[in-house]
Design brief:
Blueprint: H1 2-69, H2 73-76, E1 77-81, E2 87-92, H3 94-114, E3 117-123, E4 139-162, E5 165-182, E6 186-203, H4 208-211, E7 214-216
Antiparallel strand pairs: 1-2, 3-4, 4-5, 4-7, 5-6
Helix pairs in contact: 1-3
Length: 217
């Protein structure tokens, strides 16, 4: 009787062993699959996240500074008319222009410094390239750092708006060079952001040397 009982338990043990072995092999296969895809996926994912974060930080800092300064067109530029009503000159306040440039540059640098160290969590399902599974599974944590340098210039342009009317735009062109570093990725992101500081519709004829001008400060 004892011998028969032992004979009956052997198939069950084999089945359990096969199930355990299959589960282990499946886990190993998933790990290897994810690791292979991680090698290609992580750098691109970090680059995209770093670009989104840096652009948002730069735009938020610049817009906040412009709102804080609160300059309008008359604070920055003054239109001088001749006795006949034609535009004789457009004078700009260089002190305020330089202040705008310096304040925005400092603000952007501070904002990027706040987000120097970043953590990104990527769901395992994102590696499958299947939309339904993109947010599925446990997350893998990755870290990257952001540093940057910035340069800005004020651009003055004129745009024809109708008969005897011209729109004078004063814009800030902010160029950002962001360096991203991590264990999986290292690269540079360069982008230029355009901010409208002020504009005004000028009524009257503008001299050709103004109307065709693209001036930077």
């Amino acid at each position: 009787m004892l011998y028969n009982r032992r004979r009956k338990t052997k198939p069950i043990v084999k089945i359990i062993r096969r199930i355990i072995l299959s589960a282990v092999l499946l886990v190993l296969a998933v790990i290897v699959y994810c690791e292979i895809h991680l090698a290609d996926f992580r750098p691109e994912y970090i680059r995209i996240q770093a670009e989104i974060l840096s652009v948002n930080s730069v735009c938020d800092a610049a817009n906040t500074t412009l709102e804080k300064l609160g300059y309008n067109y008359s604070d920055i530029a003054k239109i001088v008319y001749s006795d006949s009503g034609n535009v004789q000159a457009i004078e700009t306040d260089s002190i305020k222009i330089n202040k705008i440039k310096s304040e925005i540059t400092k603000s952007v640098q501070k904002e990027i410094a706040k987000v120097y160290d970043n953590d990104v969590n990527i769901p395992i399902g994102a590696f499958t390239n299947i939309t339904v599974l993109s947010n599925w599974g446990p997350c893998i944590n990755m870290n990257f750092n952001l540093t940057g340098s910035f340069s800005s210039e004020i651009v003055s342009t004129f745009e024809q708006a109708g008969i005897n009317q011209t729109v004078h735009h004063i814009r800030l062109m902010l160029t950002s060079k962001i360096m991203t570093t991590s264990l999986d990725y290292s690269g540079n992101i360069t982008f230029t952001t355009d901010f409208e500081i002020a504009q005004s519709i000028i009524v009257g004829e503008i001299p050709n040397y103004y109307g065709s001008l693209y001036r930077t400060y």
